[in-house]
Amino acid sequence: MHPLQCVLQVQRSLGWGPLASVSWLTLRMCRAHSSLSSTMCPSPERQEDGARKDFSSRLAAGPTFQHFLKSASAPQEKLSSEVEDPPPYLTMDELLGRQRKVYLETYGCQMNVNDTEIAWSILQKSGYLRTSNLQEADVILLVTCSIREKAEQTIWNRLHQLKALKTRRPRSRVPLRIGILGCMAERLKEEILNREKMVDILAGPDAYRDLPRLLAVAESGQQAANVLLSLDETYADVMPVQTSASATSAFVSIMRGCDNMCSYCIVPFTRGRERSRPIASILEEVKKLSEQGLKEVTLLGQNVNSFRDNSEVQFNNAVPTNLSRGFTTNYKTKQGGLRFAHLLDQVSRVDPEMRIRFTSPHPKDFPDEVLQLIHERDNICKQIHLPAQSGSSRVLEAMRRGYSREAYVELVHHIRESIPGVSLSSDFIAGFCGETEEDHVQTVSLLREVQYNMGFLFAYSMRQKTRAYHRLKDDVPEEVKLRRLEELITIFREEATKANQTSVGCTQLVLVEGLSKRSATDLCGRNDGNLKVIFPDAEMEDVNNPGLRVRAQPGDYVLVKITSASSQTLRGHVLCRTTLRDSSAYC
Ligand code: 5AD
Ligand code: SF4
């Protein structure tokens, strides 16, 4: 047998997923192969362990072809409370966490925060405990990001620190296991196992259900990986354990993956094809969060407004997709399914006191029905993230964004007409392949023209596998990228300050989050546009109980009179406690 036993798995949409997403799963068999033993074999202490030897020989026998056939025929309808049947080379006992303590560390975007909660939900059901103390951990899992080179470098540095922790670990304790989860596991696959021998497990974004098995394999001192991408995994039945959620708000994943293939972006390669979670399971989660008293839900997805639930045959009509005017897709137009407007409508009806936000959308999927709904429904926040990436049509074409500067600007005007007072934010990349000074000036002028309330600005980072990597040249020198980035940041701040200052003198509805980080006498919350609002903690009237004097608590809605504004924060003083329905705030 080859030291790297590589089982090519052909996924079909039910069970093992589609042919298009052929991926691999490896089990490293270091004991069986002396060529690898010096660097990869377990410690003598572990070699003496008879039980594990037995385990190793079962593992060496490996999963049989029949095992994969058996799995292939079974649809993925599993209850999250059920621990999976063990594969033939593991016993049920080995699959359980045996109270081992897991330390989870999250890097990157909000999707990763949500993935951490999903991974933890799966491990918890398998008998693992969670710890927030690194020293106490038996298993350390890093949920990683690959979007830019710097994000990956941070993980490599962290791994070097963890290596010291692993080597210093006393023999009296169970060996420390380290795992890489998420995008970096998917992008680099076995390269991580080869480069960092102390990494025990790898799990790609669609393989979290397999974590108990991967950790069980790692128990015997062997490396294990599952980086299979799936066409239908949405973890719909896994209720995330919302440990990161505040008392007031939570994120709810509604779709995964991306089909857009922007030429600079690694996401379609690390997170796979676009797929949506069935509406029924989203509504169920939102209802639970409302029952728990949460006041804000952010619908989450890589392309949240491209949502399309076609989980049931009757949803699959031939209604063509309405795109924003002047926008195109890099893929064949999709049809049918329940779309984002339908979901937004349903979700916003669950609890009129619950604010609804969504991130991150793509500008192509803002048909009028979505804009109308945002305008009409009180509890859908008037806040839209509209990633532009560049203000130059030439660069946008090279990025394969599917729109020109003109189409984007027209969409901005249309959104502002449809939703008066809407707050806009955007993403921009400085120094993309072939970007000239003139292109950069175009981006500067777009920032000035739109005057965003918030912005996320990045220097371009070439990623292997992307279209830009294969077809374009990363020809903007690093110092030029950074200089352009700084210019964009300065201009964005100037414009955001101006935009935010239009709120001064207005009364705004603020959802209270808690104490301000900077002062124990101030409270902090967010306005409808998701901007931070700071105000002194003072007694006020409760409009629903006239005469009653109260102090604001996390989860309360209060009216705040805005007195000053910067590029990132508003300040004001509190007027009264109210409800979302009763508030006739604003300017
Ligand atoms: N380099 C720099 N920024 C990138 N983004 C995505 N890929 C890259 C890259 N290769 C940015 C885009 C995207 C945001 C999430 O990250 O602006 O909208
Ligand atoms: Fe990346 Fe473009 Fe997909 Fe966003 S839309 S995740 S930038 S490929």
Automatic annotation (TrEMBL):
GO cellular component, one term: cytosol
Entry coiled-coil feature ranges: none
Signal peptide: none
Gene3D superfamilies membership: Methylthiotransferase, N-terminal domain (3.40.50.12160), tm_1862 like domain (3.80.30.20)
EC number(s) on file: 2.8.4.3
GO BP annotation list: mitochondrial tRNA modification; positive regulation of mitochondrial translation; positive regulation of translational fidelity
Gene Ontology MF: a single term: 4 iron, 4 sulfur cluster binding
Keyword terms: 4Fe-4S, Iron, Iron-sulfur, Metal-binding, S-adenosyl-L-methionine
Domain Radical SAM core as annotated: residue spans: 244-498
A Pfam family it matches: TRAM
Every TRAM domain range: 501-576
Span of domain MTTase N-terminal: 100-220
SUPFAM superfamilies membership: Radical SAM enzymes
Cofactor (UniProt): [4Fe-4S] cluster
Reaction catalysed by this enzyme: N(6)-dimethylallyladenosine(37) in tRNA + (sulfur carrier)-SH + AH2 + 2 S-adenosyl-L-methionine = 2-methylsulfanyl-N(6)-dimethylallyladenosine(37) in tRNA + (sulfur carrier)-H + 5'-deoxyadenosine + L-methionine + A + S-adenosyl-L-homocysteine + 2 H(+)
Keyword Metal-binding: yes
Family the UniProt entry places it in: Belongs to the methylthiotransferase family. MiaB subfamily.
NCBIfam families for the chain: miaB-methiolase, MiaB/RimO family radical SAM methylthiotransferase
HAMAP family: tRNA_metthiotr_MiaB
Name assigned to this protein: Mitochondrial tRNA methylthiotransferase CDK5RAP1
Organism listed in the record: Pan paniscus (Pygmy chimpanzee)
Gene: CDK5RAP1
